[in-house]
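Contributing new records

If you add data, match the layout below exactly. Sequence lines come first and carry their own label; structure lines follow with theirs. Keep one chain per record. Anything else will be rejected by the validation script.
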Amino acid sequence: MGEKQGNTAGQANDSTSRADLAKRHRRDFVRAFSNMSQIAVLMLACVLIGVFLGKFLDEKLGTTPWLLLICSLLGVAAAIKSIYDMAGR
């Protein structure tokens, strides 16, 4: 009889550890998905701000397409630096 009680306690521990493991995997997945989403939005925002700023300045100053190219590249550089900073956290 003592063995049966030990087995049921062991089974309870196994199911508890499986539930904890599933929760941990779910939490890790959500955290990874959140980080990837943040990176995607950050890159998109930096590049779009550079493009729109360059386009606006080109129209105002008549320097088409030079400021668009320069600001787009600055937007890409800002996105890369932001990702590098995020990786350092």
